[in-house]
Design a protein that fits this description.
The protein has about 280 residues and is mainly alpha-helical. It folds into two domains: about 190 residues, Alpha-lytic protease prodomain-like (Up-down Bundle); about 80 residues, 2-Layer Sandwich (Alpha-Beta Plaits), CATH 3.30.70. The protein contains nine helices and three strands. It has a three-stranded mixed sheet. Helix 1 runs antiparallel to helix 2 and helix 2 runs parallel beside helix 6.
Length: about 280
């Protein structure tokens, strides 16, 4: 977070002094990143609270809500940058190239450091992954600012500054779409993209003693915590009849080892129970 704050202040002041919209746009994106990191840390801290009688799943979903808020803020920032970019394109404003080059280079270094710090932990948390993506976008934006400064220095075309701002706005929108899409999928309790539900059903049905699987649901509680519930129809014929405990132990092992699903709720049914349920 300290990296994002330092970069935001430096590029914000530099953008104001140099009159560069591209630099101010990058600073605005970094400001959103700093706020996102702070919100993420707060959400992760609250999410660690234990479950209670009112919130039986605990506070895990706060992390997802924070990610959704981050995405909405990014959309707003992108819209502001695009509108100001259009105004600058119609009415060009002189910029201070040397300041742009210096601050863009600083932004590249700081964002690269931030990405290196967050990379190892970005895989297990939607919020931390969002932070990593923000920093990656900021790195590209800083490179874009540097390129626009060099183009202005070489060609004198002031339009390069707002054009790069449009590109920065586009990268922000791309990040926001991905972040909001993932958050909404979790809130709608959709099956995780990397979990093939049909294969999960087949894997359970292949457990000896299982005749069928129905009412199968797979969803994400929060980043890295996948839940499953289903009804298993069991058969018991001959001397090799397996107990429910044996079937449950093997089914849970299959779900854990093949699909990394730890939180499971499995209800057993007999052939007769299922038949009577259909009739009534």
């Amino acid at each position: 977070m300290a990296v994002a704050v330092v970069a935001t202040v430096a590029e914000g002041v530099g953008g104001w002094l140099s009159h560069s919209l591209a630099l101010l746009s990058d600073a605005g994106h970094m400001l959103a990143d700093a706020a996102a990191i702070g919100l993420s840390l707060f959400a992760l801290r609250i999410a660690g609270r234990p479950a209670d009688a009112k919130r039986t799943y605990g506070y895990y979903r706060l992390e997802i809500l924070a990610a959704l808020v981050n995405g909405a803020v990014l959309f707003a920032i992108a819209a502001g940058i695009a509108m100001e970019g259009y105004r600058r394109l119609m009415h060009p404003v002189p910029v201070h190239v040397q300041t742009m080059v210096t601050l863009a280079s600083l932004g590249i270094v700081l964002n690269a450091v931030g990405m290196w710090i967050t990379h190892s932990s970005a895989q297990g948390s939607m919020n931390l992954r969002a932070t990593f993506l923000h920093l990656a976008g900021d790195l590209l934006n800083s490179i874009g600012v540097l390129v626009s400064a060099l183009l202005i220095a070489w060609t004198g075309q002031l339009a390069a500054d707002p054009i790069v701002s449009f590109l920065i706005a586009a990268t922000i929108v791309w990040s926001a779409i991905r972040l909001c899409r993932d958050a909404v999928d979790v809130l709608l309790e959709g099956a995780p993209r990397h979990i093939p539900v049909a294969e999960v059903s087949s894997a359970i049905e292949n457990v000896p003693g299982v005749a069928a699987v129905h009412d199968l649901h797979v969803w994400t509680i929060t980043s890295g915590l996948i839940a499953l519930s289903c009804h298993i129809v069991v058969t018991c014929e001959g001397p090799d009849c397996r107990s429910h405990d044996e079937i449950l132990t093997e089914a849970k092992a299959v779900l854990r080892d093949r699909f990394a699903i730890e939180h499971t709720t499995i209800q057993f049914e007999s052939d007769r129970y299922q038949h009577e349920e259909v009739i009534h």
